[in-house]
Every structure is written in structure tokens, then in C-alpha cells.
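Could you please consider the sequence and fold appended to this message?
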Amino acid sequence: MQVLEHEDVLAAASDVCGELDCLVALAKGAMMYKLRPPQMTTANVVEIKEGRHPLQELVVPSFIANDCLLAGGSGAKHRGTPSGGDSPPSMTVLTGPNHSGKSVYLKQVALIVYMAHIGSYVPADRAIIGLTDKLLTRMATRESVSRDESAFAIDLRQAAFSINFATRRSLVLIDEFGKGTNATDGAALLAALLDHFVTLDNERRPKVLAATHFHEIFENELMDTPPQLAFASMDVHLDLEASAENQVTFLYRLTPGRSTSSYGSRCAEMNGVDEAVVRRSEALILIMSRNEDLEAACSKLSEEETVKLREAERTARLFLQWDMEIPPRPRGGLGSAQEPRIRDMLRQALGDDTSSPG
């Protein structure tokens, strides 16, 4: 009872101690991991110089820092914009191969924005962070046997939530949306989703970072490319004369413009996929890039397959021409005299010329 009499004081003291513990932890983390103070602003922008992922950089020998510049609706210009007053994009679409760092880049931008809003220093040389009301993501698909939904349905639900609740102060992250269904439907859905966000009026347009392998969206002009849409890619170095494991070198550096390839077959070879499978995939990629009839091309037989088919046809014709009638075995005998002859005929049909039919 004596303790309960001081419940309010103890609770207040506990809250103060908890807040102090958090501040000490944030200060210690800032010193240990070389974090810098962000500049918070009412301008609707995210400007990051040499940003890093606070966890990923702890598990790699060397982390490549990257910049980010986005401006949502009614926040396109502010004093900190290095472009001299020009309007930064509200959406940046990232392309590039797997393993190149696209997902890490999306997550590091979100983490920097979040850390700035909780009063923490951030892993960047400089950061100007506009007030953000929501971090909306279509990134990780969490499946469970307890949920009566497919992986693609979960992705669609995440996308729908972003559409319904995004404001001009929101940051939307989209990573590989549309990959859970066939390529045509997936590309169309992603193009429509991106077009929805980038064409909203200036009072509702959020800041969007998206990563995709659907290059056909832009190569086939499935959506417009307004000034508020920018493209970037994660740079790679390609050396076709090197060994398979050294042909693609990931540089993890964000560069302006779109990537021309996802280097899927190279990534497959680097991760242990059989060489024959990789060669076949590259042949199919070449056929599709030429807009050739894929079905007709795949129905053609290789020279080796043609030879095998001819041999099988010859064997079948010989087999059908033979008189296979065998006299019944005599009771107590050792078998028909025809049996050795038939065995010789079968050996000949199968390509064994050591014996001939008698």
C-alpha cells in the first residue's frame, strides 16, 4: 500500500529514466557508427547525401554510400535543393540486376527518414528530411498457412493500402511489384500503379521509390515519363572475357538512367545453376529480343536431337518389319531355336553390329 501511494511519482520517474536511456543509446550509437544530425524541414523533400544502410554496412567489408533526392507534392522547391531551384522528381524508378543493391537502397532511404523522425542522428553525410506522415511499402511478401491468401494477393493488398492511404507527405516504397503473376499482367499492373502515383495532382502526389525488372514498361512506352519521374540504376561492370564468376562485378553505385539488362543468366551462373540451363536461357533471351516467334523457335530440334530421332525411327521401322512368330517350346526342351536369332536381330536394331541375324 505504501508503494501504491506513490504510483504516479514512480511511473513518471520510470518514463523519465526510459527516455534518458533512449537518448543515451541514440547518442552512443551516433558516436559508434558515425551518424550525423539531420535537418528537419516543413518542405516536402527527402535529400540525402552519401546515405548508408545502418545494418548492412556492419556486415560487409566496404559499404558504398548513395544519394537520394525526392520531392512530393507542394514541396518541389526549397533552399537546400542543389539543383538551383529546379523541381526534383517525386518518383525514382530503379533498375539493375539482382544482387546489385536495389532493395538495400530502398530500405536505407526509409530507415534514414524514420531515424530522423524519432530524433536520432542518421547514417549519411548530410540529410534534409521533410516531415513525413507515413512509410508505405510493397516490399516483403509474408506468407503463412494460417492466411487464406496467395503471395500475389498479399502483394496486391499492400499496393491497395498504399494507394488508399498515401498523401503528399508519404514515402512509398515499391520493390518488384507484379512478379507474382505472369509477366504481361505483372508489367501492366506495375505500370498502372506507377502511373497512378506520378500523375496525381500537386496536392496529393507522394514521394515514391520503386525497383523493377520489367524493362518492357519503358522500352514499349506503356506509361508516360513526365518530368517528375526519374530513372536510376545500380551500376555493374561487365567483362565477357572473364571467367563465369567474374563476368559481372557489382559496383553498388547509384547512377542516373535505366539499366539495359537484369543480367539474370549471369546471376544464375554465379549462383550454381547448371551451365546448360544458362546457355539455353541466353538463347531464349536472344530470340525474344529479336521479336521472333518463341513457340516456333522452341519447336525446332537441334542437330543432335534430329540424329537421335532418325535413329529411333529406323529402329522402330526395322522392329515392325520383322516376323516375330516363335514356335512353342518343346516340353522339357531348352527353348526354341528361333530365340538366338531374335536376340541377334534386336542387337542389330539397337546398333550392336557384333552379330547379325541368321
